[in-house]
């Protein structure tokens, strides 16, 4: 199954590249000083794909340090939507199967979730770094009691260097998640834009703290 995991991870990364290049059909739904969030219907499942775009006041390396999906990484500290993150299996140097758990959210309307994903890390020639993921099954991760199993469809973050601005990074992220369970669509549609603006806001604080 290792080749299968690698194939799924590479497909997710290819889809991220296609989303990045395709400006059509995105509709803005939220804008803060840190991020503009837009959405369009997903081609992967009966929900939406969300796009977040913002400029962070730190180098691509510092931003990557905060978001990279590794065991013991800083994401559980600053990302309010990540309670626990574990690497279940390191498939190779760049691909791993990971389990993420999330706390309850949205005034406890959304109960704790767990996600099992294959994650790929990649660096491009221009210095852009990508982390891409999509849901998988793994024998070491049967569904846990007390968690609703959610599913991430191809999603990820690009840390993009800005020419001539070594201390600023464009972060382009795509979120495409089926939260599972029986949530009213209105809750789901309110949750994601708020959650993405929170992600950018908390990440901005984290990169500033890293530099301090």
UniProtKB/TrEMBL annotation:
START domain span: 9-212
Which Gene3D superfamilies does this one have? 3.30.530.20
Q: Which UniProt keywords apply?
A: Lipid transport, Lipid-binding, Transport
| SMART domains linked | START
Entry keyword Transport: yes
Task: Spell out the Pfam families in the cross-references.
Answer: START
Q: Which GO terms describe its biological process?
A: cholesterol import
| GO molecular function annotation | cholesterol binding; cholesterol transfer activity
Listed PROSITE patterns:
START
Q: Which function does this protein serve?
A: May be involved in the intracellular transport of sterols or other lipids. May bind cholesterol or other sterols.
Name of the protein: STAR5 protein
Which species is this record about?
A: Heliornis fulica (sungrebe)
